[in-house]
Amino acid sequence: RSRLQQTHTMLVRICLLLAVCASASALRAGVAKINATMPLGVPLAGYNHGARRAPDWPIPKLGKYTTFMMPSVGTEDPTFAKALYLDTGNDIIVMVTIDAIGSDSTIRRMALDRIRAAGISLRDEHFTLHGSHSHSGPGAISPNFLWAMAPATDLLVPEVQSLMADRVVAAVLAAADALQPAALGVGDGLLYNATQNRRARISPFLKPDSIDPHLNVIRVDDLSGKPIATVWNFAIHGVCWGPDQMKFSADIMGGASNTIESLVGGVALFINADAGDIDPAPHMCDNKPNYFGAPIIAQKVQEIRNGITASPDATVVAHSQLIDFGPTNMNMTFERFSNCSTGGPLDICTICRILKCDANLHLGSAWMEESPTFTAIRFTVGKENSILVTMPGEPLSELGTNVRTDMLAFGFDRVLLAGYSNAHMGYFATPDEYDIGGYESQLTFWGIDTAAMVQAGCAAVAGPLRP
User: What is the pLDDT along the chain (467 residues), one digit of tens a residue?
Assistant: First the structure.
């Protein structure tokens, strides 16, 4: 690295060390849970087929909030915005979760501006927004044209986007009002037989049990030991409800959070992980909306939480950076989009494999976010250092393994992977999976090097926080 880069990293680490020293023994925490269910008729984001899609797509079918998708018809269970507000005595760090298909950088920016206007001096790099990846959350809230035209989210409706931002702000302000001296701890465990790898049917590198079993928990209590919040981090797609479900739902993750709150108390906040190729195991969705799998997850979270020692001397520091991906690099081929490498009409698949007749589309920022915010948050409790790193979309589990390996090599004791955070830029397929093709490969928008770009972004923000 250049001397300038080395100097910058050194200064960042000195500032963070000073922040840790200033914040010791001063931790306060507040949490809030706000109903963020959008109005009846707002489309549901996540599927571009079934009852969700306008019957004659791409011919629009206009509704109050819809263009290419059909309006929602009710609420299966409420969707929430939840905020964990941490005041370290030196800095404010706020984590917000929403029951939505993903995060969105424009809602994050809109909410941050309104939070500041309300009198809270929250720094951009200390504010994270995490989508649960429920496929029955609100659409019409993102300006990304590619998702709108798929159609997976539908066209932006500014009124709905603003309303969602208001719900995020309301959660943050309520959490700020609830601040109290607190103790914090982080722990982890492994949860098997709850998820499956959905690419195992097409990938020779994967089996159904090629999943990420890591279940991380952040425990936040008041100084008497009463629970304030439980943050749980696990890789699972929110697809118990399918494309014919037309009612809002937080899916199985919401069901598990509700159960955690009943078992533990306080507010449960869910942060998804490297779930790009990981679905619930079939039995987990049985008996929905009283999901068979919800208590399985919740009881494991409770077990891990009970084993964590929370400390009032815990320190929390964060570092963020904008990473420029540039225009998309969509290498569209028959091999990747149709699993067709030989044959086809007039032997077109064979010919195109030889001639490399791909459609390499370079779409600009109006179509898809190009410069997401990556954030790393370090939690230090005693001699243990846990790192949370955000990823702006859907990392496949192999990418999650690679990022976790990097973080452990940095000297962190525990790694929380926060997918679907701060933005949603599609899937992040690793090179082997990208070449195999399939849905996740098709929606990897920056080509075969996309996963490497995400991995580098995680390292860039976590590096200055190394113990």
Answer: 455 555 555 555 545 444 444 444 489 999 999 999 999 999 999 999 999 999 999 999 999 999 999 999 999 999 999 999 999 999 999 999 999 999 999 999 999 999 999 999 999 999 999 999 999 999 999 998 777 777 789 999 999 999 999 999 999 999 999 999 999 999 999 999 999 999 999 999 999 999 999 999 999 999 999 999 999 999 999 999 999 999 999 999 999 999 999 999 999 999 999 999 999 999 999 999 999 999 999 999 999 999 999 999 999 999 999 999 988 776 655 455 555 554 455 444 554 455 454 566 566 666 788 999 999 999 999 999 999 999 999 999 999 999 999 999 999 999 999 999 999 999 999 999 998 888 898 889 898 999 999 999 999 999 999 99
Per DSSP, the three-state class of 93 is: strand
Structure tokens at 232: 């749980």
Measuring CA to CA, which residue among 109, 34, 18 is closest to residue 373?
A: 109
- The rounded distance, in Å, linking the Cα atoms of 421 and 216 is 16
Contact 237, 275 (CB under 8 A): yes
Those residues whose C-beta lies under 8 Å from the C-beta of residue 7, and which sit 6 or more positions away, are none
Which structure tokens are listed for 17?
Answer: 């060390």
Q: Are strands 247-248 and 74-75 parallel, antiparallel or unpaired?
A: parallel
Is there a cis peptide before residue 55, judged by omega within 30 degrees of 0? no
User: Position of tokens 């790192």?
Assistant: 387
**Are 119 and 128 contacting, i.e. CB atoms less than 8 angstroms apart?**
no
Cα 384 from Cα 310, distance rounded (Å): 12
pTM value?
Answer: 0.90
Closest CA to 217 of 264, 270, 181: 270
Q: What is the DSSP letter of 37?
A: P
131 within 8 A of 101, measured Cβ to Cβ: yes
